[in-house]
Amino acid sequence: MAKKMVVILGPTASGKSTLAVNIAKKFSALGGPALGWNGAEVISADSRQVYKGMDVGTGKITKKEMRGVPHHLLDVASPKRIFTVTQYRALALKAINKILKKGKLPILCGGTGFYIQAVVDGIVIPAVKPDWKLRTKLERLTTEQLFEKLKKIDPKRAKIIDRNNRRRLVRALEIILKTKKPIPALKKNPLPYPILIIGVKKEKGELKKLISERLEKRLKQGMVEEVKKLRESGLSWERLKGFGLEYRYIARYLKTTKDFRNPLRFERISEIPKSVNFEKSDFFNRLQKEIEHYAKRQMTWFKRDQRIHWIKKQPEAEKLVKKFL
RNA sequence: GACGGGGUAGCCAAGCGGUCAGGCGCGGGUUUGCAAAACCCGAGACGCAGGUUCGAAUCCUGCCCCCGCCU
């Protein structure tokens, strides 16, 4: 049994998590034990599920849904602090090695392409914590000024960076100013063993339907309350907005209800009716669109990776894994 | 029937004689230190028919349609 890893990726709502668990559960049938494997464990590759307290909105798998298959990298960070790819990669590598040491197959499963790439292709970068003081200072500059500044102190990075992207400009400057040296040239350090990458493909219409059904379910499961709780635990509206999608939209909604600009006013969590009628509302439709766009962006990311084996149904994935092992 | 307002891309909406509105949606893309974030590019239009003009979404004439209001 040589070291190997399986990656399962795909757009949001495509059913990746379920597939990962199913594969792990069917591991014997796929011939794992016969080849010396002791089983399989899942590592989440999701930039939002790493946060504690973000469950309903991220579609975090429940204990019950795991069906005994161990999952890693869920709830490893506080939403109050920024979590970055760098940290993700370090934790993921640790988890992968632990799993391999047990003689088990790691299944990296998630929709954050950047995180997956960081692990699989290995982008090596030292960590620099965000410096809020410096950021507020930089935020005062115009985008153009930020770019000029970067060009002066690190022309190499300036050459390839998106000069319209304030966020990236600020982060680049932060790193340079904190480490006192230019951004080091990219070093790739890919995992040294075979990796099977499976992509879950869905027809556009079907995916839309899945997204819509899931969104409805989440709202019923108390997503509004989840966001309210996060807010009450001290997260700023700005921070919630940064999480995007559900968190962004519900935060906006709660904010307006709090500002008394909305006819629906909820002072305490208990006052939020169990079934605020979001369905068919402007709120619902917009959020739905937003999630569809997100799915599209994910696909844009995945499309360029030629190593991905795209599948439509589980049996195809099983076949691939069996052969791979 | 009279008067008033209006008909601009799938939707909302500016322009009212001479590069371009814009937003949403749609399509494509970037991403190598916040990535569910952030950012970029593209297609598509002036209700219809004439006229005036070097040039018309924009002015004129006629017609069609919608909304309001009055009888």
How does this structure look, described?
- The chain is an alpha/beta fold and 325 residues long.
- The protein is built from 14 helices and 6 strands.
- It has a 6-stranded parallel beta sheet with strand order 3-2-4-1-5-6, sandwiched between helices.
- The longest helix has 22 residues, at 282-303.
- It is globular and about 60 Å long.
- The structure holds one RNA strand of 71 nucleotides.
Features:
alpha/beta, 8% strand, RNA-binding
Task: Spell out the blueprint of helices and strands.
Blueprint: E1 5-9, H1 16-25, E2 40-44, H2 63-66, E3 71-72, H3 85-101, E4 105-110, H4 113-122, H5 132-139, H6 143-153, H7 155-160, H8 166-179, E5 195-200, H9 204-220, H10 223-232, H11 237-243, H12 245-258, H13 282-303, E6 309-311, H14 314-324
Parallel strand pairs: 1-4, 1-5, 2-3, 2-4, 5-6
Helix pairs in contact: 3-4, 5-8, 6-8, 9-13, 10-12, 11-12, 12-13
This protein binds one RNA strand of 71 nucleotides through residues 12, 46-48, 57-58, 82-86, 111-115, 117-118, 121, 123-128, 130, 160, 162-168, 170-172, 174-175, 183, 186-188, 241-248, 286, 289-291, 294, 296-298, 300-301.
